[in-house]
Amino acid sequence: MEQLQLPLLWAMLCTYIASFMLYAFSIWAKRPQIRAFGSQIAWLGMVLNGVLMVLRALLINGIPLNNGFEFGMCFAFALVLTFNIVERKFDLAAVGVFVLPIAVVLSIWLLSVDMSIMPLMPALRSYWLSFHVTAAVIAYGTFALSFALSIAYLIKEKSSIKEDSLPQLQVLDEVSYKMIFIGLPFLTIMLITGAVWAEYAWGSFWSWDPKETWALITWLVYAFYLHVRFIKGWKGRKAALLSIIGFAAVIFTFIGVSYLLPGMHSYLAG
Amino acid sequence: MLKFLSSIGLALFLIASMAGMAVIATIVGNDSVYTSVPFLGLVVAFWLNLLLCTIKLLPQLKIMWRRNITDITDTTLGYDCYVGNEENLAQLHKYLQKGKYHIEEEQKETQTKIFAKKNKLSLLAPHMLHVAILIILLGGAVIFMTTTSGGVFGYVDSESNLPMSVRQAIGDKSAEPIERGEKSDDYLSVQDFQTVYDEKGQIDNWVTRFDLTIDQQQVVTNGETKVNAPYRYQNMMIYQNSYGNHYEAIITGGEDAGGYVLPDGQHNFLADGEKTLMFKGLSDGRVLLKVFKVDTEGAEEVLIGQVVEPGDIVAIEEGVTIEYLRSKPYTILEVKVSKGSGIVLFGFLLACVASLLFWLGRYREIMVIAENEGNIAIKVVCKNKMVLESIQKELDQQLQKG
């Protein structure tokens, strides 16, 4: 069964690429009806992603959230699932052209990491792992979607893309904010569950390990976002730029720290 | 001054500064930044700012929390008008009931007033989160000031003193530095140490069983600590930190004659300076004895490589033998004494509850003034523009516009 992972990953990647191309073509050719097809392919990609997660869960006999490969797989799933739900609710199909590339990049990255099944070290054999990493997956998924919406906002605002190609600026801005509003409490829970677990495992709630410090930095960026939005009225362009900075912090926390700033979370790189 | 200290501008500056300093500290890899005066100063300033800000916002919260039907004024300025008929009013009631609004209604001779609100608890979320952060930081400060920890090395069936700083922290005022090998009043007796394997034969955990004696009184009998499940005794936490094996052996004959306890996998030079001795634990539990010849450039040649059992005697050179006696498993426990963990955990709990309250949805109010022989005036209040517009759209769809 282990050999099935790679073909499934390739299938997932190809589906995400196909979906992206359909979304892009619908904008380029000004044929919104193609978006529905792009959306169906995105659902198919998500199903393949889900099958890969189930396969992995069967292989490891547990929840597949134990290393970088498993986290990345769930991250891509959370992103596309959130997009598929939000896209229906707010009629944001055209934004798929900005969302799917993130799923594609994540899938390509997954192809580059070690997907072999390694025994879990005793410190990771804890129920806290499921809560901590699940919260991270959901938070990252929503932040990634907020990032895509922010990019769409900036492009729509700047470029000559016709009004009907992308959703209205206000909708892009509001949904991007909503995603952060949903994601930040999950990030808070991720930090809290991580801290409580660290107290049990390592004897300290907080160790200023690069990974946890960057998770805190990410939290501070999004807390800053919400405060300037509520109180200073930052919307539109400024909010979009902050959302992009926040997602840069997410990506650095997820991938950058694992490779560049080794610490207690370095096992995630594998 | 108070206005500045409680300002959101200051809060944003402090958040940005803390984030900026943390970014620099991780990139240059300097952990001392987090205990430096500038960083701690920022944290203290942030705590004060958050405290003042939270206090400042309380009256506003109180007003919002207590809002009810008496807050509906008689003027309908800013209200949307719908046709005033029984059907529309019934439809409105249906809409509010379906939306699970909390409804207050007041009927007068000439008009009916309705005050409907939803997700009132979500009003508490930001305030609760702020209070939680204040508590967490306070608890963190208490932990920072009171934590004492140290490692305890112990062989199975032996006694090991608690570190002096820990002995002092648990109130043993007589705690003084002691000589190596001397027993203090506070010590751990390691009863057992085991590596636990799962059904696939992979390491699941390391478990140490111990007795704890404080001030010559045994306070814990057969306590157990393992990874992810430390043992707690009052303010003291005992963590499973590390483990390993030493090997006891006797060398007979030659300059090296005597008893030894040798670490796992390390070269130990013999007196001739040319040979080294090594015990290595194998993954299947057996023990390998190796003797190497090492030249001046450090190149190694294996002279002996033999799996040994307790009692085995191996000749390592002419007239010199080594008798392997037994392996001596040891455990290293981390003993920590601190106050403030409870405060932090309470703060975490509060922050989790606040996070859940955020997801209840935005607080919204619908105020209605229905004239007996006139229009139905409706005003929707919600801080989120999208929610506000969505409610207005739903009302427009369900009621006839006036």
Note down, in words, how this protein is organized:
With 270 residues, chain A is mostly helical. Chain A folds into two domains: 1-114; 124-270, no CATH class. Chain A is built from eight helices and no strands. In chain A, helix 2 packs antiparallel against helix 3 (68-90). The radius of gyration of chain A is 19 Å and the shape is flat. By secondary structure, chain B is of the alpha+beta class. Chain B has four domains: 1-64; 67-119 and 362-402, Double Stranded RNA Binding Domain; 133-244 and 332-352, no CATH class; 246-328, Tumour Suppressor Smad4. Chain B is 32% helix and 38% strand. Chain B contains eight helices and 19 strands. Chain B has helices at 2-5, 8-28, 37-66, 86-98, 124-146, 164-169, 341-358, 385-398; strands spanning 80-82, 102-107, 111-118, 148-155, 158-161, 187-197, 203-214, 217-226, 231-233, 236-252, 258-263, 268-269, 275-281, 287-294, 300-308, 313-317, 320-337, 364-371, 376-382. In chain B, a hairpin with a 2-residue loop joins strand 9 and strand 10. In chain B, helix 3 (37-66) packs antiparallel against helix 5. The model of chain B has no long low-confidence stretch (mean pLDDT 89). The interface between A and B is large, with 46 and 48 residues.
